[in-house]
Amino acid sequence: MAYEISPIAAFDDNYIWLIDNGQIAAVVDPGDAKVVLQRLKERELELTAIINTHHHYDHTGGIAELCETFPGCTVYGPVSQPLSQHHCQQDDDVEILPGLNFKVLEVPGHTLDHIAFYSNDLSPSVLFCGDTLFAGGCGRMFEGNPEQMQSSLERLGSLPGETLVYCAHEYTLGNLNFALAVEPGNQDLVQRMEETKALREKSEATVPSVLSTERATNPFMRCREADIQKAASQRAKNIVSNPAETFAILRKWKDNF
Question: 227 a known binding residue?
């Protein structure tokens, strides 16, 4: 039976991702056990794995209770995650569910221990990126520096363009508002904003997004583009051509947008 991925809404704007084949399941970044347990009960699913991308509570708060409820559940997470039975590092290959393997990518910046999980066992391929890459934006730098974060985004951006990007928050509308301030002449971005508005007016999720769309419209993934560097230079009142410096200016701009 094929695996399907569906969102479980949590808190104000979090998505906990459920991966299941109708019998067994894994969840990604379960900050709230209650909503996960409710969905598992409704679907009559057995939880056998938890994927954790980083240590923030809205991504970890439900792990302990879920493991108590499903004692055979395995937690895959960063080396720093004490609840993990399987500590994951760069280029590890882990079989989360039978026949469903993920490659681990270290993507520091939002936190120093942040990891992402990529699989091409599904078609199209999928990426669970936590709070590193968002639809139309990226996470704040709570622990890392611009060089780390920009490098992490480029690492994710090198994956196949058809990859579906499963980020952890519904931030797309606000992110695209900022993106348009940076690159108002980007027609792909203008069209994406219209599509996003239509989805949100119907209270529909704007994620997953497609990685090729992120490369075309997400300013934080376009720090090598002349138009983005020009916007950063105008913001900084100084000529900027280095991608990490460009990213730093954009991130500070977005933090105060």
Answer: no
Is 169 assigned to a binding site? yes
Residue 113 is assigned to a ligand binding site? no
Please tell me the predicted confidence (pLDDT) of residue 1: 59
Residue 110 assigned to a binding site:
yes
Which positions are annotated as active-site residues? 54, 56, 58-59, 110, 131, 169
pLDDT digits (tens, 9 = 90+) for 56-86: 999 999 999 999 999 999 999 999 888 888 9
Reported as a single tens digit per residue, the pLDDT across 149-187 is 999 999 999 999 999 999 999 999 999 999 999 999 999
Mean pLDDT of the chain: 97
41: Cα separation from own chain's centroid: 26
DSSP 99-165: TEEEEEEE--SSSTT-EEEEESSSSS-EEEEETTEETTEE---SSS-HHHHHHHHHHHHTS-TT-EE
Q: Does a structural domain hold residue 254?
A: no
Asked if pLDDT for residue 232 goes beyond 90, the answer is yes
Q: What's the CATH code of the domain at 62?
A: 3.60.15.10
Residue 34's domain comprises 4-170+203-212
